Amino acid sequence: MAKPLILVTNDDGITAPGLRALIRFMKEIGDVIVVAPNSPQSGMGHAITIDSTLYIEEETINREDGAIAEYSCSGTPADCVKLGLRELLDRKPDLCVSGINHGSNSSINVIYSGTMSAAIEAGIEGIPAIGFSLCDFSWNANFEPAKEAIQQIVRQALEHGIPKGVVLNVNIPKTKTASPKGIKICRQARANWKEKFDKRISPNGKEYYWLTGEFELLDNGEDTDEHALSKGFIAVVPTQFDLTAYHAIHRLNNWKLND
Amino acid sequence: MAKPLILVTNDDGITAPGLRALIRFMKEIGDVIVVAPNSPQSGMGHAITIDSTLYIEEETINREDGAIAEYSCSGTPADCVKLGLRELLDRKPDLCVSGINHGSNSSINVIYSGTMSAAIEAGIEGIPAIGFSLCDFSWNANFEPAKEAIQQIVRQALEHGIPKGVVLNVNIPKTKTASPKGIKICRQARANWKEKFDKRISPNGKEYYWLTGEFELLDNGEDTDEHALSKGFIAVVPTQFDLTAYHAIHRLNNWKLND
């Protein structure tokens, strides 16, 4: 049987250690083609490049990582997937994986996540897709303890297929050397960022702000991604891009909108 | 009773005619404060500014539109809402409205929409929020025919409240002068963009791409936003930011992830 074709992308950029680790993990499963941003794109959400030009460069960041071909793109993670599918790959890939992100994309972070936007873009195109994130922002984070679980999730996704309209958001707890305790299927925890804006004065006297904030968990459920992570488990949240709140349709139909 | 406090924002920028129309429509209902991007931010999805500074300017674009105060911000639509809530407003607003967008944000477009990202950001903060979009990309689009319906939706939202965890995505059909036929509560239609990349050569010989594409409706349902719009109705989709695909959890639990 032909090896599966796996499109690898991310939002931290083509040189990020998390991407390089994912390439190495995936080459043991399939043929890997990389299309990743040429600069960090964290927090880009599902941005796409409409009013600007896009550039692609063929790259050889590290041949030993084992990709068949690598391309960097000047656009967002969603642009990378679109360009990869339309311009760079000879056939539809069997899987798209995004990451491994340096930092969590659990709970409400999924909304802001460039990593997940790439996976969702592939999902919209009907390609099984998974975003992987390690809950460690360090550039020198250790991705090796997660290798076995990541490969297991990918193999299961290739074997069973991912339900239509669903992409997987996989968050991995930070561990020193031991593997995570296991894998749990979860729902997205309710949470919020309590932003604080750090107000400063520039050398030329102009006020400016830095966005900072603290994560606030608003959910005590034991079936959430945050709960699984807190107990040392990998959290897998099936994530959809039909955003309709079906439960609210009936209630809105009771509003007097057409009187 | 005190007038409601309404935060108005958008993604086309603080000078966009759609925003100016929304300010005029809202000042008849409440006290309006504007925090909007200082430049167009279409297609920004739910991007936020993490690795860069943010600037705010107090503005007087057109005093006659009737806002109490107006601020432009160097960031994304989601940044505008965060900054508005944390730094610029004295109290939590009773409502956040985003738009009126020049162009549709129906069906899958909601994923890429800066207009809706601002509304969703407010929704995450527990503020009733609505995104309005007119299916007309023209800068000179006529927003007046939608005035009555927009005000009716806003008044009903203020009266009933919007269900927790839900924001409204309102798309308005293009009409010459007549009002839309009515308002329908809908689900998000399944659809996709068939991208085409227009490949060109720069004056210095470098290849570059423009993202273009055609909208492809994949849904024949009569309960969708696209169907309502095609029949001349305003489409209201209750939209959620819990992205969990609950229906898929059981199926994923049958995978062999922990063997």
From TrEMBL, chains A, B:
Signal peptide feature range: none
Ranges of residues in domain Survival protein SurE-like phosphatase/nucleotidase: 6-195
Stored Gene3D superfamilies: Survival protein SurE-like phosphatase/nucleotidase
Record's keyword terms, sorted: Cytoplasm, Hydrolase, Metal-binding, Nucleotide-binding
Entry-linked InterPro entries: SurE, SurE-like_Pase/nucleotidase, SurE-like_sf
Cellular compartment(s): Cytoplasm
Major localization class: cytoplasm
Catalytic activity: a ribonucleoside 5'-phosphate + H2O = a ribonucleoside + phosphate
Record: residues binding a divalent metal cation: 11-12, 42, 101
Superkingdom: Bacteria
Cofactor: a divalent metal cation; Mg(2+)
Family (UniProt): Belongs to the SurE nucleotidase family.
Protein task: Nucleotidase that shows phosphatase activity on nucleoside 5'-monophosphates.
Protein name: 5'-nucleotidase SurE
Provenance organism: Arenibacter certesii
Gene: surE
